[in-house]
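Entry: NSS family neurotransmitter:Na+ symporter
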Amino acid sequence: MVQKREHWGSHWGFIMAAMGSAVGLGNIWRFSYAMGQGGGSAFLIIYLLSVLVIGFPVMLIEFSIGRRAQTDAVDAFKKIAPGTPWMAAGGLGVLAAFLILSFYGVIGGWSLRYSFEYLTGGITGDSTDFFVGFIGDTFSPIFWQFIFMGLTIGIVYLGVQKGIELSSKWMMPILSILLVGLAAFSLTLGGAAEAFAFMFQPDWAAFTDPSVYISAMGQAFFTLSLGMGAMLTYSSYLEPKERLTSSAAFIIVLDTLFALISGLVIFPALFAYGLDPAEGAGLVFMVLPNIFEALGGIGTLAGFAFFILLSMAALSSAISLLEVAVAYFIRKLNMSRKKVTVIVGAIIFLLGIPSSLSQGAVSITIFGESFLDFMDSFTGNLLLPLGGLIMVLFVGWTWTKKEVLHHGDIAHNPLGPLYFLTAKFVAPAAILVVLIMGMLNWL
Ligand code: PHE
Ligand code: NA
């Protein structure tokens, strides 16, 4: 069976889908708790530097590989460099898709449950008890994870144009409006000054902590969907004539704004109510309901807006994770998209069950972390930077300078030479240093 390869209906559709992939739980749930634990501004500065020096070249490189190869993350390397081991990056990517989506679906399920809760009146009483009780339950979080994965599978099942592109074109503008509205509201609550100080006033001591570097760089990879072939796969659905450089810049700027603005939603509210920013992975679920409750009716509405925002952002990212694996297996097994999507989606749902159970129902820990937290930090802080490192090395060191500039559409741009130097030397060196720092810190 020879299958015709799908393409985006429009360039705008591609941008919305790639932005949908980038903007997700990473910007809100993961960003807020990682920054809360990383001491605020020190984390923020290293994260922003990583986005600029590593994020931009890696994204343009993934785009260059995908559009050039017009195929999935594994085959792309085989096609461009037959018989070489570079395709390991693609293999790691497909593995990362399974691992990340397994726990991502669990948090996506939590978000859906909370949206539903606010639709039907809100969460009252002790919100920590509510959260701990819910995630520690055996069946309820798995039920919501199942619903979330069902939606993800449903969209990918419909295909590149009718599923991924169409849903992203609707969800992204709605998300942006919801986020800006919530930030404006949160800033009126009285914690704005403290939040600004926490986010933007450098705390020099935190710069000496190696774990802050690892988590900030990992966050840059995770939030931009880099290092595992999601951006590669999406750009492989572009026609070869479509331009890349400004799309990469646009997506990066918007993803970063999304993270900063959601910081301005969460931290002012948090400080206004005297709560702790270092709360950890449950931050948005435990902290925000207190605030929504204290605000009465408008709070219930704000709570619904917030958790719907979180759910939609999660969904548009989850579809990109699933698509990496689906695109690979459609070709590999030569089976229809519909069959592959259902099978792969179901396997990932099952893989997520231990993450869900690890939140209280059953004690599953690795290196002292819950299984879910381990999967989150292992994939984000290690697997993605490693995948990204292989991809920049592949392009920077096996393509000619002319090819690198040409496939990044940056040959006639004054920033071209700077991009080339960054892609060839600065980005790989930076990733390597931080990875080694992380290993040493871990030992
Ligand atoms: N970028 C997404 C987020 O911020 C997560 C993601 C990572 C999606 C890797 C695809 C690939 O939530
Ligand atoms: Na993101």
